[in-house]
Design a protein that fits this description.
Keywords: NAD, Oxidoreductase. Catalyzes the reversible oxidation of 3-phospho-D-glycerate to 3-phosphonooxypyruvate, the first step of the phosphorylated L-serine biosynthesis pathway. Also catalyzes the reversible oxidation of 2-hydroxyglutarate to 2-oxoglutarate. Helix content is about 30%, strand content about 20%. It contains 13 helices and 16 strands. It has helices spanning about 10-15, 65-70, 85-100, 100-110, 115-125, 145-155, 170-175, 185-190, 210-215, 235-245, 275-295, 330-340, 370-375, and strands at about 1-5, 20-25, 35, 50-55, 75, 135-140, 160-165, 180, 195-200, 220-225, 245-250, 265, 315-325, 345-350, 355-360, 380-385. The chain has a seven-stranded parallel sheet with strand order 8-7-6-9-10-11-12, sandwiched between helices. Strands 2-1-3-4-5 form a five-stranded parallel sheet. The structure holds 1,4-dihydronicotinamide adenine dinucleotide (NAI) and 2-oxo-3-(phosphonooxy)propanoic acid (HPV). 2-oxo-3-(phosphonooxy)propanoic acid binds next to loops.
Length: about 375
């Protein structure tokens, strides 16, 4: 029996994939695995028993990764599963920033509905007029799952698209329309684009990457869209630019006291991934990844441990070890197993930065004592007997 705990509501389409041997617990401390969306985990203590956290979504800035890693907790996310939902919000954001559709609707809602409503509407409409996005320059910072989709969609809408991503993945590059200009100097985007949208993860390296200096370079009347994270942008500087008439609109998916109800901002309450499709996709992917990890020890789409695929164990036993990526670890593992007379059938050792993961299939069942001896090795964070 496995226990899972949901820190946020998770789509039933995903949770229904758990077979009967999985139970949804109401107590986080009992969980083998935790599913989460945007809930802040930085001040939570997860139990020793918890082996995995699955973020049903992309951004993992709500999870203390270093702390989890050192507890041997594998953190998963669901790359691309909600990207289409965000893409559609970005397109909507560009349209709403270009024409005063919201102002027009609000004006109409306040009107008395009388026989002459059509006549009054025709007379007033000029105050809500705007511009088209076709033919305008769009700069995209971050060409990952979302950035690529926004870029391709914008091409179809007739925009001239400039993309910047020094770390673009081969997959993303394959999916990118050939009509997109790949820019190596981010300042070119700041200088030349009419619309700028940011799609990078929030990390120490990207925090406040758009600040006063970047805004100063931008064209007058630029529209800045932020469906990634509020802390990527110096929003005090944005509000000053909006006030000064330098920036036309700031479209953001993140409400906070700086931007909520500020003039010329369009703020949505973190709706990017809030579609039936995105919620289902994320939940299904998260659940499948968790099950493969809990039952087979396989890792796919982890943000803190390397990928590892040993399939289903066909030998008598399997154990997995989460540990630091330093010399002499494997030799210590094989010594413990050798001393206990355990024969290794297959072994996988993978690393991701400072951390590593070892999967060992053996020809006889593994005892708790052997697992304890492995766990006692310095810089071993977790040992699991899978079979
Ligand atoms: N508003 C919402 O509901 C949602 C927001 N997000 C946010 O959007 C972010 C991006 O999501 P995805 O596209 O799915 O992630 P992704 O991981 O597929 O793409 C991120 C891209 O940013 C690039 N990048 C990293 N640092 C960069 C830098 N300094 N300059 C330029 N590019 C850089 C990476 O190379 C990668 O290609 C997430 O981390 C999350 O914070 C994601 C989904 C929903
Ligand atoms: O996937 C992401 O990074 C998101 O921001 C979506 O967050 P949510 O799952 O809607 O709370």
């Amino acid at each position: 029996m496995y226990e899972y705990y949901c820190l946020n509501p998770i789509s039933a389409v995903g949770l229904d994939k758990f077979p009967a041997k999985y139970e949804n617990t109401e107590c986080m401390q009992e969980a083998d695995a935790i599913l989460v969306r945007s809930a802040d985990m930085h001040n939570l203590e997860v139990a020793e028993k918890t082996a995995a956290v699955a973020r049903a979504g992309a951004g993992v800035n709500n999870i203390p990764l270093e702390k989890m890693t050192k507890k041997g907790v594998v953190v998963f996310n669901t790359p691309g599963a909600n990207a289409n939902g965000v893409k559609e919000m970005v397109i909507a954001g560009m349209l709403l920033a270009s024409r005063d559709i919201i102002g027009g609707i609000e004006w109409l809602e306040k009107q008395d509905v009388t026989e002459d409503i059509a006549k009054r509407a025709e007379k007033q409409k000029k105050q809500f007029a705007g511009c088209e996005i076709s033919g305008k320059k769009l700069g995209i910072i971050g060409l990952g799952a979302i950035g690529v989709r926004v870029a391709n969609a914008a091409i179809h809408l007739g925009m001239e698209v400039y993309g910047y991503d020094p770390y673009i993945s081969v997959d993303a590059a394959w999916n990118l329309s050939r009509s997109i200009y790949h820019i190596n100097d981010i300042n070119m985007i700041y200088r030349d684009c009419d619309y700028i949208t940011i799609h990078v993860p929030l990390t120490d390296a990207t925090r406040k990457m758009i600040g006063k200096e970047e805004i100063a370079q931008m064209k007058d009347d630029v529209v800045l869209l932020n469906f990634a994270r509020d802390l990527l942008v110096d929003e005090e500087a944005v509000c000053e630019a909006l006030k000064a008439g330098k920036m036309k609109k700031y479209v953001t998916d993140f409400a906070n006291p700086t931007v909520a109800n500020a003039p010329n901002t369009l703020v949505t309450p973190h709706l990017g991934a809030s579609t039936e499709e995105s919620e289902d996709n994320c939940a299904v992917m998260a659940v499948k990844q968790l099950m493969d990890y809990l039952e087979n020890g396989n890792i796919k789409n982890s943000v803190n441990y390397p990928s590892c695929d040993g399939g289903t164990c066909i030998d008598a036993g399997r154990l997995t070890i989460n540990h630091k990526n330093i010399p002499n670890m494997i030799s210590q593992f094989t010594k413990v197993l050798g001393d206990a007379g355990v024969n290794i059938a297959n072994m996988i050792n993978k690393s991701k930065g400072d951390y590593a993961y070892t999967m060992i299939d053996v020809t006889m069942p593994i005892s708790k004592e052997v697992a304890q001896a492995l766990k006692a090795i310095e810089e071993v964070y977790r040992v699991r007997i899978i079979k």
